[in-house]
Amino acid sequence: MTQPVLIAGAGPVGLMLAYELGLAGVPAVVLERAATPPAPEQSRGMAVNGAVVELLEQRGLMDAIRPFGMSFPRAHFGHIWLDPTTVGQRHPFNFAVPHALLQRVLEERAVKLGAQVRRDAEVVGVRQDADGVEADVVGADGARATVRGAYLVGCDGAGSRVRALAGIGFSGADVPFLGILADVRVEPGDPMFAQIGVNQYQNGICTVAPIGPQALRVMTGEFDTEPGVESAPVPPEDFAAAYARITGTALTGHPVRLSYWTTATRLADQYRTGRVFLAGDAAHVHFPLGGQALSTGLEDAVNLGWKLAAAHGGWAPPGLLDTYHGERHPVGARACRTTSAQTALMHPMSRVAPLREIFAELTAFPDVNAYLVNMVGGLDVRYPAESGGELVGRRLADVPLTTGAGSTSVAKLLTSGLGVLLDLGAGVTLPDGFDDRIDAVSAEPSDEIPASAVLLRPDGRVAWASPATAGGLAGNGLAEAAGQWFGKSMMVGVAA
């Protein structure tokens, strides 16, 4: 099949998907409504949580992003602070970087792998048949065109046109909430610097983050208040009034860029209908807290990318594409549920303040702190597994490894986008006929990996694991797992 995969939306999720497809040699065409990419100063999001850091390390992308941001060793649940440094995860806390810079890096890498990014191209029509999908696109000048592909993935945001055209419901509720985002020019020593961080007040929330030596990103939010129209301009005096209502202090800086932001909690009824898929905000939206939206969306892309590549290449086992909904829809539902739980702790303060005090006391217990850090960091996701032990369905941590060729790590083994059979002393070998889909690597045993061998899917999830003391049973189930996730052996039907 030579038709490309069509992707609607050139945000981080759509571009991550294009990159994943490029790793597998699958052509991708990204259709983006906007004529130009956003500038870094236009980024609304800054938080990249632990799960995203793991994904980016896994694909060798983090080194390109690290110079533009910084580690942020804090985490919170409903603006109740947690301690991620005690959890023991390799990436337990956030990295702060404008999402537009992340988007730029992903686009550069995807294009290098052959992806086409067509801007000023809005999807306005979708038709699918047994062999592919057609997308009607229109530009700002009204010119129309039809693009055909093998599959279409809607990564086009909360107002997804692809989702609507595919007839997929978006269940949930809008919440009355007035949010205003402002970039504020300040002088050195301005009192607003004392408010840097996430601040919960009686009348709402106010987050302040530095974006330059004399500039702050300020986001205010008031619950049970009629929202603004996101496309409408925000009068500076309205922002100043909101800031004063929430913080009880006067705005001292000068706002230079203002916009409304709203929130809703919604989940697509299904992530797939035929050859049309949804990912990112097109599939799930919720209150923005700690980078969970970006994390959930990028995980969608990495989960779906290799499965589409398998189907495109003709080696996907039966039902592989259906596992995308089966694995990711519950994760989207959980993100909606956990963020709703956090907002329930944030208002109205006159009623929830005692609950917040008790909850803060509970977070002092190490197990509670660890549970919540892993939850908000997206580090606790495990896909359903019928058998295979505790590791199966989880992402294997980025553990350092020693091989005959020298030092490496779990993440470095996954940068190619192939599956990996990692032998840690069990003496297992890769079943014949999977060399084009699975790399076989032998390494010294690691105390951090409770197994003598593991089979990793291209997304870094464990598909099979042999117990650390398996003895002669070390290879039991390996061939079945390889067939379940990587299709038929290329040796099937070949004469001996």
TrEMBL record:
Keyword line: FAD, Flavoprotein
Superkingdom assignment: Bacteria
Domain called FAD-binding: residue spans: 4-337
InterPro entries, A to Z: FAD-bd, FAD/NAD-bd_sf, RIFMO-like
Coiled-coil ranges from the UniProt annotation: none
GO molecular function: FAD binding; oxidoreductase activity, acting on paired donors, with incorporation or reduction of molecular oxygen, NAD(P)H as one donor, and incorporation of one atom of oxygen
SUPFAM superfamilies per the UniProt record, alphabetical: FAD/NAD(P)-binding domain
Named cofactor requirement(s): FAD
PANTHER family for the chain: BINDING MONOOXYGENASE, PUTATIVE (JCVI)-RELATED, TRK SYSTEM POTASSIUM UPTAKE PROTEIN
Protein's recorded name: FAD-binding domain-containing protein
